[in-house]
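re: the backbone from monday

yeah here it is again, tokenized this time
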């Protein structure tokens, strides 16, 4: 039986050992997390961070895994924190508080169904609430930052802190969280609206997205940020014009539908994806002289330490 590490003793924590990361990501890539923690409460998350920082053990946060490539070698020396059990949902007038693990699409369905406007433009975007805030999910129909009022984060000091959205300085696919912070919930300031109309809008945006993007295949959404945000030429078009569509390494392939999407054709590795991205970036630079900035989060492969060799 696997022994409970010292840092996990003395408080309640759901901790899995050698949990495969691939099924927790939309591209279905990634080896095992040596420690996979699913705290049940915000306070439990803060306690976990204090225990880890005291023990000198690092952590990474995995939300919906929809813009993330997990390493082939897994995560061996750090703890993967998965806030999927932080699932609260509270409505007070037009103010809605959601746990970090709450699925964004469930939030879109629930709020529009309640006649609350603000999240309908995020129809079709896969995410947990925490990941959607960390990446400022959105696009031409609106951004999560448009309606975010505040977040509660667990911090390495073992405390919960409330941060106003204005202090997160959210931009194109970014939010400035303090180092080590784990979002445990988010509060949105929505507006009263017509439920039927809002649901229709969210449905139409979702449908339109599935026509333009390979939303049913295994991928992680966009690989690169558009160079000028939502204005100007898109990263997908730059990749397409550089001849990247259809380019493949191993089982990872840039889709024919969208030059910014990489599909896992079955059995792709993180190494396939890394090499494919590097090859495409070289082609894009050669064609346009533009160095695209990556949107996808790629976790590094583990260092070969004593623990990862089982020593
Ligand atoms: C088919 C498809 C279409 C997509 N379309 C869009 C789109 O239109 N617009 C868009 O913005 N994105 C899109 N994406 C990308 C993705 O949906 C977003 O980036 C989303 O916000 C990621 O959320 P997640 O919960 O899956 O985060 P993950 O992918 O799990 O993590 C992303 C980053 O957020 C951090 N993070 C996650 N949870 C927390 C937390 N609780 N506290 C602190 N940090 C955290 C992670 O550590 C990581 O750095 C698409 C993806 C797919 C697969």
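seq for it, each position gets an aa:
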């Amino acid at each position: 039986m696997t022994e409970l590490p010292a840092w996990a003793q003395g408080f309640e924590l759901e901790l899995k050992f050698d949990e495969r990361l691939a099924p927790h990501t939309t591209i279905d890539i990634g080896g095992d997390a040596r420690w996979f923690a699913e705290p049940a409460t915000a306070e439990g998350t803060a306690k976990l961070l204090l225990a880890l920082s005291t023990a000198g053990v690092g952590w990474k946060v995995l939300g919906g895994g929809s813009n993330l490539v997990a390493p082939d070698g897994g995560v061996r020396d750090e703890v993967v924190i998965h806030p999927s059990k932080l699932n609260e949902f509270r409505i007070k007038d037009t103010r809605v508080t959601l746990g970090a693990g709450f699925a964004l699409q469930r939030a879109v369905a629930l709020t529009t169904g309640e006649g609350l406007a603000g999240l309908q433009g995020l129809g079709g975007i896969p995410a947990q609430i925490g990941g959607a805030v960390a990446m400022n999910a959105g696009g031409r129909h609106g951004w999560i930052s448009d309606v975010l009022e505040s977040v509660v984060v667990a911090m390495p000091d073992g405390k919960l802190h409330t941060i106003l959205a204005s202090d997160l300085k959210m931009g194109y696919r970014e939010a400035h969280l303090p180092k080590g912070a784990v979002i445990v919930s988010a509060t949105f300031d929505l507006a009263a609206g017509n439920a039927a109309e809002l649901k229709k809008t969210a449905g139409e945006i979702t449908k339109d997205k599935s026509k333009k993007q390979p939303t049913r295949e295994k991928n992680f959404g966009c690989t690169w940020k558009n160079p000028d945000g939502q204005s100007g030429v898109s990263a997908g078009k730059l990749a397409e014009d550089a001849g990247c569509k259809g380019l493949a390494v191993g089982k990872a392939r840039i889709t024919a539908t969208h030059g910014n999407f990489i599909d896992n054709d079955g059995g792709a590795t993180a190494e396939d994806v890394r090499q494919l991205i590097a090859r495409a970036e070289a082609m894009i630079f050669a064609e346009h002289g533009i160095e695209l900035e990556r949107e996808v989060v790629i976790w590094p492969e583990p260092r070969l330490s004593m623990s990862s060799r089982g020593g």
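Residues 306-311 have pLDDT under 50 and may be disordered. The radius of gyration is 20 Å.
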